[in-house]
Predict the 3D structure of the following.
Amino acid sequence: MVTDKSSRILAVVDDDLRVRRSLEQLFRSAGMEHILFSSAAEILSSNKLSSIGCLVTDVRMPGMNGCELQQRLGSIVPDLPVIFLTAHQDDDVRNRALRQGAFAFLQKPFDGEELLSLVKLALGSSSTTEVSDVDR
């Protein structure tokens, strides 16, 4: 198993193709190695789990939601930083995700630079020690 988070890849899970394409462009422009998944089931069946260093996931998805995915991946990839994205204001879900150890929880639309900073922090490849206005 790879232990250096900075050499691991970023996984994105979102059922909305437009969001995946947008995130792909953002991460590609930043030179970040990433892999895209359209569902929780797709990432869970992937043979790439041991190489994932950070997960960016939508909260509401058909089938398994983001919080359930966070829980399942936690038993497979311990200490995996998870950054949640959501278009729906739901304090219960937000609090649940943070209690389960979410790295951050962002409302859509979000600032791309803010997300990049969070991902870099999660992967351990940034010297930034604090990101403002983000629930961590």
Notes: Confidence is low (pLDDT under 50) at residues 1-6, 125-136. The first strand starts at residue 9 and ends at 13. The two ends are 26 Å apart (CA to CA). The chain is about 35% helix and 20% strand.
